[in-house]
Amino acid sequence: MRIAFWGSSLVSAYWNGAATYYRGILRALAGLGNEITFFEPDAYERQKNRDMDDPDWARVVVYNPADLKEVQHHLSWSRGCDVVVKASGVGVLDDYLEARVAAFPAAVCKVFWDVDAPATLERLESDPNHPFHSALPYFDLVLTYGGGSPVTSHYRRKGAAECVAVYNALDPDIHHPVETDPRFACDLSFLGNRLPDREARVERFFLAAATAAPELQFLLGGNGWQDKPMPQNVRYVGHVFTADHNAFNCSARMVLNISRDSMARYGYSPATRVFEAAGAAACLITDAWEGLDLFLYPNREVLVAHSGEEVAQFVRQLPPERAREIGLAGRKRVLAEHTYSQRGSLVQSILTETLSRMSASAVEQTA
User: Fold this and answer.
1) Strand order across the beta sheet in which 234-238 lies
2) Kind of pairing, strands 59-63 and 141-144?
3) Over the stretch 175-197, which tens digit does the pLDDT of each residue have?
4) Which domains does the chain have, with CATH numbers?
5) What does the DSSP assignment read for 80-107?
6) For residue 41, what is the DSSP state?
7) Each residue of 117-174: pLDDT tens digit?
8) Is the full-model pTM beyond 0.70?
């Protein structure tokens, strides 16, 4: 298949939490013989903060979002592909791109790939005049980054022809155990950008844990936290490039995952960092959310906390040998059940089935 994919960025993870997800799935799809072209805007200084060269498994087209003639040229080219994907959260021209892709000919398989489905659905519920209400029924398929049946059922009620959750996963070639790095040495680390629907939970689970355990050392990575008041035992290291993620995860005694508000409400939404940390055999602590055991078993492969105080208790009390056991068990689980190779095969089968359904429908309409 020839696949045109319109997303935030493939080559830069700067203010772009979906980068690892895009890379893992599209690399797997390319390995199955598909031709991938990724269209990304020159925005948010991502091109100045690349963390990878253009890959040999995808063609990357960087466009100027202020030049609509250029955008229209790339859209015209995309119409000739078998599958055209418009991802959520490109960051510029989202409504415009969704409307244009939705209007593509019936022969093109039009996919909306939502990398923040809970937030999208809540936005649609709060705004009955949002333009995506009109565009959604014209997409042949909706794929989501997570959310499970609460999200997929909700999307179908909103008019989606079909909706399937394709979860985050691990690329073991990219995220794996490495030697510790003194730059990231600490008792507990957390990596995540500062976002409005995450900040309060970071205060609750990470900063409160640091306050409750002043004798421990905490490490915070991610964009946007430089002016955030923090306890003295929290060290902020700013943006952590993808090449340093393994060292970041392997150099702390434990690693914390904190879900965004909407993802925690819907559940079934493991963040990319869950699989990165598990792939590095880190002892992972996560906030509690429904569906976790589909990915990692609580108390065997991951620790689950309901507050910052519980996070602090885990870091204080868990023996090092038990932390290593949990980290290794988590790595074993994701290698067996949650790799991007497996996700790529799933997407391949979904796209093949959707194209077959579209072909059969076209034959019926002409009969």
Assistant:
1) 234-238, 218-221, 186-191, 252-257, 284-287, 303-305
2) unpaired
3) 999 999 999 999 999 999 999 99
4) 2-169+340-366 (3.40.50.2000), 182-337 (3.40.50.2000)
5) TSSEEEEES--SSSHHHHHHHHHTS-TT
6) E
7) 998 999 999 999 999 999 999 999 999 998 999 999 999 999 999 999 999 999 999 9
8) yes
